[in-house]
Amino acid sequence: MPASEIRAEHGRLNEMIGHGTWNQPAGTITDDTEQALCIARSLVEQQRFDPKDIAERFVAWYDSNPFDIGRMTMKSLSRLKHGDEWDEAGQHVWENSPEGQNAGNGSVMRCAPLAVPYADDWDRLVEVSRQSSQITHADPRCTYGCAILNLTVAGLLDNADTPLQDALDYVGTDAPAELVAALQPLARGDSPTALETSGYVVHSLQTALHDGLVTENAEDAIVTAVNRGGDTDTIGAIAGAVAGARFGASQLPDRWVSAIDEVGELESLAAQLKEMA
Length: 277
What we know:
- Pfam families: ADP_ribosyl_GH (PF03747).
- Helices cover 62% and strands 0% of the residues.
- With 277 residues, the protein is mainly alpha-helical.
- It has one domain (3-276): Orthogonal Bundle (ADP-ribosylglycohydrolase fold).
- The longest helix has 18 residues, at 140-157.
- Mean pLDDT is 91; it is low at 1-21.
């Protein structure tokens, strides 16, 4: 999107943030951030990655009747609530979902907190990223999507010159070919002729990584991603994670941050996750 169009759209995003979306009060966080908070709280309180504990936190959140929840996540958390183990529920839902309904973006939208404490241990980062996805989204496009996103975020935190290419090189041929093929042009610096905004994990990652990596500042990255339409909160969340790692939290507009009730906890958790590293 040209810079002139990005500037013209700032008001639209500001209005959405200022007045709330989904008929919710201003500053309301969606399921993307709520699940990311479950992961971050677990990491800080357990001082390690504990998928069973994260799964239990997801179930407690599910029981709170959230106003927004993805289909695969809902099915997986229902199975967890009724006795499945953390590494069984998502697998069962995936195996019983047809192509086109089995690789949603519900795990990549929440996984970024893992990139902070495991930024310097890429083997472990790939492992925990894939396991965190497996709780609700077991398709390899989802599990490796989380790994590639978190490796990219880790590279950005380390000021890598080619963070996405480094991530793709690291997972190598283990990652699904369809996912790699969608992301490889971005790693070369090419922009696809069309960027999709569906809830399909490959589309969401391609679009969000594009916007997070090519724009000139964090605000433009998030504005561009959200104003594409489609699954706006998730694509915006992923692009925001990339832009945050690339530019730093201090570059987020104060008018956005001040509208979020959970900002104090988010800042505290971020600092504690950094200490874990």
